[in-house]
Design goal:
Elements: E1 2-11, E2 21-22, E3 26-28, E4 31-38, E5 46-53, E6 64-73, E7 83-92, E8 97-105, H1 106-110, E9 122-131, H2 178-197, H3 209-231, H4 235-240, H5 244-256, H6 261-406
Antiparallel strand pairs: 1-9, 2-4, 3-4, 4-5, 5-8, 6-7, 6-9
Keywords: Coiled coil
Protein name: MATH domain-containing protein
Coiled coil: 302-346
Length: 409
């Protein structure tokens, strides 16, 4: 029985991290798992990612857990460019973590154009599928492979390893389907050996006698030859010949005539991959053809745009020189403005001083004007008094003379 779990881990401020970091634990198959990340690489110039069995300290001696898992770095600009690798491994004592020391080059990861780091946040997805029991064939060579056509087809530069192990193989050149092809070819070779020795025919349908053995042996040999012929073809050629169903029938006959449960599981896996290939290969071929047409159709447009960009470059250089010239003029005007500002400030100070003096003069003039008006009033009053006194004096003199006349003197 299989138990699968998907987990997503968002690491913020990723570029500031220096030391290794663990994700939160998640449960798959009743056990806790974590993703282990080395932001600066595990002694390499690559991002290092591992699946860690978090419950290893509580496990009894001799424990082991068989797991199929994948780790994906999500491309946040285009999901089709996400980087995904998968592996199969028996986790056990001294090997409680397993993964990819050289997942992706650090310079590629940190490139703004690549789309893996957005707002300094890295998104990692993990999928863990745990078998109820460890298969007898587990523990052999393990191969890392991308699984989805919507993700990068590259491979890590080292095979999957524990964080504490050093890779001894520099590169893996297997594409996604290579592990299935390799397993199937090995199985074919083993089936051929079993056929020649009579081991396979003796267990098929319980048919006794040399005739049944000869019939089954001939059938298996015929199917082997057909499958070898198919393996000599590319997946593209098989798709164009519409032969995936025929290949599937051949594999199903092998599974029917084989009693080994491990080999049956491999053959079942191959059948499921053929079902995937039946859909994915034509779709990939269609994408390639469409992309080629788009490339051809954009050649002329690209040339025209390149010509426009040359003219645009000249225009930008001219405008850049104009901006520089205007900035120089602006600096000169600004200097003149500063000089005029200083002159204005001087004039304002002089004006304020003169206004102050004028205010003092106004007050003095007002005072003097008041005094003048007072003197003028005083003078007028004196003149009036003088005239009245003269009139009285004249009247007195006239009366005096009249008295003289009246006395006849």
């Amino acid at each position: 029985m299989l138990d699968s779990k998907d987990f997503t881990w968002r690491i913020v401020n990723f570029s500031k991290l220096e030391e290794e970091i663990y994700s939160d634990a998640f449960v798959a198959g009743g056990y806790r798992w974590r993703v282990l990340c080395f932001p600066k690489g595990n002694e390499v110039d690559f991002l290092s990612l591992y699946l860690d069995f978090a419950d290893w300290e509580t496990m009894p001696a001799g424990w082991s857990k068989y797991v199929e898992f994948s780790i994906t770095i999500v491309n946040q600009v285009s999901g089709r460019l996400s980087r995904k690798f998968c592996s199969k491994h028996v986790f056990k004592e001294q090997e409680e973590d397993w993964g990819f020391t050289s997942f992706i080059r650090l310079d590629e990861l940190h490139s703004r154009r690549k789309g893996f780091l957005v707002d300094d946040t890295l998104v990692i997805k993990a999928r863990v599928t745990m078998e109820a029991e460890v298969p007898k064939s587990a523990g052999g060579p393990e191969v890392a492979e991308p699984e989805s056509e919507n993700e990068s087809k590259g491979v890590p530069s080292t095979p999957p390893l524990s964080r504490n192990k050093v890779a001894r193989t520099s590169t893996i050149t297997s594409p996604c389907s290579s592990i299935v092809k390799l397993t199937s070819k090995n199985l074919i070779a083993e089936l051929s050996t079993m056929t020649s020795s009579g081991e396979l025919t003796s267990s098929v349908n319980g048919i006794p006698g040399s005739n049944a053995e000869h019939t089954v042996s001939g059938l298996v040999q015929q199917q082997l030859e057909k499958l070898n012929e198919f393996f000599g073809m590319s997946l593209e050629a098989i798709s164009e010949a519409n032969s995936f169903d025929q290949v599937q029938q051949v594999v199903l006959k092998f599974a029917e005539h084989n009693s080994d449960p491990i080999k049956k599981m491999v053959l079942k896996d191959l059948v499921s991959r053929l079902v995937e290939f039946r859909d994915s290969i034509p779709r990939s071929l269609s994408i390639i053809e469409t992309s080629s047409d788009v490339e051809k159709s954009t050649v002329q447009a690209t040339k025209e745009l390149e010509g426009k960009l040359v003219q645009r470059q000249k225009q930008l250089k001219f405008l850049e020189s104009e901006v520089s010239r205007i900035e120089e003029e602006e600096m000169k005007v600004e200097a003149e403005i500063q000089l005029l500002g200083a002159l204005r400030e001087k004039l304002v100070n002089e004006k304020n001083l003169t206004v102050g003096e004028m205010d003092v003069a106004n007050r003095e003039a007002s005072k003097e004007l008041g005094e003048l008006k007072g003197k003028q009033l005083e003078r007028k009053q004196a003149s009036e008094n003088k005239l009245r006194a003269k009139d009285r004096l004249a009247q007195s003199n006239a009366s005096w003379k009249l008295f003289k006349e009246n006395l006849g003197l």
